[in-house]
Design goal:
Length: about 525
């Protein structure tokens, strides 16, 4: 597998907000604790070691052991769960929705990032143990975002009438979809047929894919975890603490020219029940569960928080805090939007006296299987050219390969010089005449631009076959105009190359913040 890397900025796929974080711009420095370099982790370890109590470790291990009770786990996973009882063991975490069949490629990239981060940290700090963790977004209720995936240019969708927290969904009606998906999907077939819930199924196949690497999967939809979150629930619902701190940070970011990713609400919790996850709002003296007939007085709600904290599910503002209170976590690996909204949460963490984790941008990649790589090479373009829009790519190729001069750069310079002389001559006679000459000069330059446009367009017609080939490569690498990693499923490569994930583990460097380009130089042995 051939590897090339290009700077994030050259992809034109990332917000300035994210790029400024990667480049450690001073403007963002007040909004995070430590930047993700391996050397920064020692101080992070010290902070987390002091803040994370033994009783939280005990609860964590007890819950994980119960969640893994019926899962056949490799020794590496069992050892890591047991190691979490020790105050020298820490986690590096990523989280994601429970997309069917893993969803888009970057789900795999996220997990590879945390596995490799733990490997490198172990080499640098051998006296400590580092456990990679995948946090299942089991309480998320956005079924529309998880119900489909794209394989071999076809979209596969799981249709179910179920609603509420997706982790609780039954997998019974998955049978029809399992019959449709091509290739070897035995791992997923077992996951969806041997587990009653979507959370159980996801844990099953993630364990099959990454268990050998010691990856621990956690489902936070647990009463024991929520019990330790009671104080946060109370302060948010009755005092609106989170919104106050998020609003302050949002205003500070906006003052520096950044557009914040999320907005805090007065109440940042959902009411969670069977088939239901709905926002809680205060309406007069009552607390209403939106779009339901459920409501509470303040007294009744306080009692519910005390007796049944599992009925409350944090939204995007407080889920990160919930995670960091459950886990002895050092760093969170996420994509651009995740990094951006975490940067809004520093004040919330400070208020609750929880160490703010190091924010690790996940690894990013584009993969060219052998046939796509051959087609790409025939275009004689650089891979970074394909991150541009199609018309730019066509013009760039034509200007590079035409034997004729299609640009009017020299003529533009000559015309500008000519009209500048005329403008100065006119100014000596009549200042108003100088403005007229300048306007005529601008019209002449516009005419030159039109001529250049027509020259290039005519030349493109002479190379229509080649440009169609370039378009085919562009569409192959950027399906529906999107980054491949946000669209295609990993089975596009894994079914043909069972070593695909191992190759990613070998080549990805979690501390190298660039966009990776992988190309198969030889045909795959097991074509689908």
């Amino acid at each position: 597998m051939q590897l090339e890397k290009i700077p994030f900025a050259d992809t034109h796929a990332f917000h300035p907000f994210f790029l400024d974080y990667i480049q450690q711009k001073e403007s963002l420095r007040p909004f995070y604790n430590r930047f993700p370099t391996s050397g920064e982790f020692k101080r992070q370890i010290t902070d987390k070691q002091a803040a994370f109590t033994p009783d939280r470790r005990t609860t964590l291990v007890e819950v994980l052991q119960r969640q893994y009770k019926d899962v056949t786990t490799p020794e590496a996973v069992q050892g890591n769960i047991k190691a979490l009882t020790n105050d020298t063991t820490f986690t590096v975490t990523t989280g994601h929705q429970l997309n069917i069949f893993t969803g888009p490629l970057y789900f795999i990239y996220k997990i590879v990032t945390v596995v490799n981060t733990c490997r490198q940290l172990k080499e640098k700090y051998p006296d400590y143990t580092f456990v990679p963790v995948y946090w299942m977004a089991s309480e998320d209720h956005d079924y529309d975002e998880i119900k489909y995936f794209r394989l071999y240019n076809k979209k596969y969708t799981w249709e179910t009438p179920q609603r509420g927290a997706v982790g609780r969904f039954s997998t019974k009606d998955m049978a029809g979809l399992l019959r449709e998906v091509p290739g070897d999907i035995q791992m997923f077939r077992e996951a969806y047929t041997k587990n009653k819930t979507l959370s159980g199924a996801v844990r099953h196949y993630v364990n099959a894919l990454f268990g050998a690497e010691g990856l621990v999967v956690i489902d936070a939809d647990e009463t024991a975890f929520k019990a330790g979150f009671r104080d946060v629930i109370q302060q948010d619902i009755f005092d609106n603490v989170a919104k106050k701190h998020v609003d302050q940070t949002t205003q500070a970011l906006e003052a520096k020219g950044y557009k914040p990713a999320v907005n805090g609400r007065d109440i940042n919790f959902f009411y969670l029940g069977d088939g239901l996850r709905a926002r809680i709002e205060k309406v007069g003296d009552q607390f209403q569960v939106v779009d339901t007939d459920i409501s509470f007085t303040a007294e009744a709600l306080r009692e519910l928080i005390d007796k049944h904290p599992e009925k409350f599910s944090p939204n995007v503002i407080l889920r990160p805090l919930y995670q960091e209170m459950i886990l002895p976590n050092l760093a969170y690996a996420g994509g651009p939007s995740e990094v951006e909204y975490w940067l809004q949460l520093g004040g919330v963490f400070k208020h609750f006296q929880v160490p703010f984790p190091i924010l690790m941008p996940r690894n990013f990649a584009l993969v060219l299987e052998h046939a796509a790589h051959r087609k790409f090479l025939r275009t004689e373009l650089h891979i970074r050219d394909f991150f541009e829009d199609k018309n730019y790519i066509y013009n760039h190729w034509v200007l590079q390969h035409s034997p004729r001069n299609l640009t009017v750069g020299k003529e533009r310079t000559d015309v500008q010089a000519l009209f500048e002389v005329l403008r100065e001559r006119a100014h000596e006679i009549d200042t108003t005449l100088a403005a007229y000459v300048a306007a005529e000069g601008k019209r002449a330059l516009n005419s030159l631009e039109k001529i250049e446009h027509k020259l290039v367009r005519a030349e493109k017609r002479l190379h229509s076959d080649t440009l169609r080939q370039i378009e085919a490569v562009k569409d192959l690498l950027f399906p529906n105009g999107n980054l491949q990693e946000r669209t295609d499923n990993f089975l596009n490569f894994y079914q043909q190359d069972p070593q695909f994930i191992q190759r990613l583990l070998q080549h990805f460097d979690p501390f190298d913040f660039q966009f990776y380009i992988f190309a198969y130089e030889e045909p795959l042995a097991n074509p689908a």
